[in-house]
Amino acid sequence: MVRGLNTWVVAAFAVVAGAAIGGGTAALEASLRPWRIGDFGPGLLQAQAGPAPQADVPETRHEFGTVGSGAEGTHEFVINNTGSAPLVLTRGATSCSCTVSDFETSEGGNEQARKELAPGGSTRVRLKWRGKGSGGPFRQQATIFTNDPRRPEIAFVIEGTVVPTWKAVPDSLVLSQVSTGAGERATARVFTYGAEPPRVEELSLPDPQASQFFSLASAPLDAAEIAGETGATGGFLLTVDVGPGLPLGPLRQTIQMRFRMPDEVLAEIPLSGSVTGDLALAGTAWDSSRQSLLLGTVSGKVGSHAELFLTVKGPHAGAVKPVVSEVVPESLVVVVGDAKPVGSRGMMRIPLSITIPPGSPQANHRCSQQAPAGRIVLTTGHPETPTLSIPVCVAIGP
After folding, report:
1. What is the rounded CA–CA span in Å between residue 213 and residue 285?
2. What is the rounded distance in angstroms from the CA atom of residue 116 to the CA atom of residue 110?
3. Number of alpha carbons in the 13 Å side-chain half-sphere of residue 195
4. Among 110, 141, 163, where does a domain finish?
5. What is the rounded distance in angstroms from the CA atom of residue 382 to the CA atom of residue 384?
6. Whether the Cβ atoms of residue 97 and residue 127 lie closer than 8 Å to each other
7. Structural domain of residue 303, as residue ranges?
8. Do the strands 184-192 and 234-242 form a parallel or antiparallel pair, or are they unpaired?
């Protein structure tokens, strides 16, 4: 009976002792570990002995609004020293697209990014950032450390929304009715988000040979159209007129635009389509999506052979009598066969025999940027398509 009583006494003593030790440990840790409310340290509630600096900041957060993608924004924050001792400021960490100035030696700072502010003095901290991405909200932050025991660090925050510097509607131009004998018009509205309405200085095509078939123009958008696009501050209508005479096949160009608002902006809009006419090609080696003759990789010792058919329609079908004027690579042998009528509408079909004879030298025309396409150029006799150039994708090996 006594032993049972002793056991309960020992257990109760252990609980009381444990609670006392735990409470004492927690109190000790609390006294040694610094704590903070926001930017303020424990010194906020402690009396300071002697002169001390005091960092006073009217604002730490700024709602910028909108900034264009790639454009730069700035905002200045003010730090006042309302204490009785010098306030030392040290530049801390910043967001990746945010920089802090006013710590240069010419502005009272030093090489260690420190700046001392006398009692009663003030300084401005300038944050710079650049809008990134195609659009959406952003938040940038910069930290300044101080020797104010009540406020050891200050976090300045910039918030806003990134909008594109410019936007085209539609974002690409597609021409679906271009023919060798007739042109087509396409338009796009270009909205801008700069400080000023855009001043268009140049519209061009990078391909000088294609430029002769295109006419480019711009005109300012009216206020109602600009107001209907969120965040837009200006804009212009881009007009592209394509004239007749373009060669048959795929049409791929890039419209280049140079305008100011007030900074210079270089922008591009892709243009694509297919030029059709009275002439059309077909055959097992003909790729209609690429408008190219695909011969692939050929052994120069063995050679290869392919057949194409040139179909001609329209009132000038009888006048088309193709003649080979150029081949690349030079080893290609192209033979034009006799025209034969197809159906009862005056359509004609002309066979083209393409041969790479055995013993041909090596050549690389894979239709890539490093290995441009070869070609078969025909003089047709058609008044609207006098010349027909057939791209050839081929690599001749050993």
Report:
1. 30
2. 10
3. 6
4. 163
5. 6
6. no
7. 279-397
8. antiparallel
